[in-house]
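Hey, weird one. I pasted the APC family permease sequence into the form twice and got a warning about non-standard characters only the second time. First submission, copied straight from the form history:
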Amino acid sequence: MGPKLLLLFIIGDILGTGVYALTGQVAGEVGGAAWVPFLVAFAVATITAFSYLELVTKYPQAAGAALYVHKAFGIHIVTFLVMFVVMSSGITSASAASVAFASNFDAAFGLESNGLLPLVVALAFMLVILAVNLRGVAEGVGLNVVFTLIELSGLLLVLLLGSFAIFGGNADFSRVVLFEAPGDKSVLLAVTTATSLAFFAMVGFEDSVNMAEETKDPSRIFPRMLLTGLTLAAVIYVLVSIVAVAVVPVGELAKSETPLTTVVETAVPGFPINALLPFISMFAVANSALINMLMASRLIYGMSRQAVLPPFLGRVLPRRRTPYAAVIFTTALAIVLIAVLSLASDNPVVALLGGTTSLLLLSVFAVVNVVVLVLRRDRVDHHHFRTPTALPIVGVVACVVLVLPWTSGREGTQYAIAGALLALGLVLWGVTVVANRATGTGRGSGDLSDLG
């Protein structure tokens, strides 16, 4: 993989559900200054990306955070937890994307957005992702390239039409610098709360480390392309949030389940192109769901093959060799999450699932920032990227601030979702370890030794 294809992969992995579905929620937390949380999220992601760059160029293997944690600590349960948290983040991210898909589907076809119809659409969408996932990785990667180009065109469309409204005098640019915290929240808490949501839009770059083995001269190419991809995504996000707030009043934007569609409808009312954006948004969030479900199912399959999850999750289709049991298992988890939250929660489901995704990944990123310092003692015989020592330290602090409930402003439901997923993982791991020891099969203790 050369630099251009790698850059396209990174940008496609970052762009998606977050900006299409959560721009209004972010604006609801900080008012017109919605671009600030996206900028802060970019800063935290970039600092962590520097840690990933040192690790991925030092150990150019396709195992990601779990490999680094295992090399640093060698504690099997810790390695397993990191793997399961990453897998869980893929499921919550895909679930958020499916709910966002349903909202855009309703907008595209003029359907009622209340009642059970959005839930039915979201669940049907997950079944379509299941079918694509069962077909295999080749089909998924091909769709990813197409969807990436479509979602990028949608964001450029929002910027273009929004700019026409701004320069035509049909927008209030003064709102962009107006800060309004809801209730009696302090400025700092409002920003961290909004950043916790906005960070969902920046995740995805960490998946690119799994492409290290497929990259030509990763020590030279990978750092430049990863930082370029992050920067381009951040520029697009900041510009989109500025345009959105300038065109649409914050209150109206925060209430919309399809905020960018609302921006286009307000910027060019009655213009036929309004009907196009919901379809583009559907492709954008479908891309996020597809990538994350591919990742989650393959991680579950890999953990089963490592004998740290039940062996039935490692079963594959006889002819296509796709891990059908892992695909069905991860899809079932996503369906349960979507159904339970849609029926039982009064809060926006996309915000809950997006916030849970960032909670899970920020926890992993905090560990990765520690690991890069621990592994400084490990020498390798090739040149690799080295991040300034201060950056991982700042990264740990920033990630922890955005994880803890009293500094991040997160809803308790996000911690409950994350805790339930981790409890499920620990139960499956415990049952597997006991069964392995009793039967003398597998590795006996789920040792994950192949990661090292």
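That's the output from the first submission. The warning seems to come from a hidden character in my clipboard, not from the data itself. The mean pLDDT is 86.
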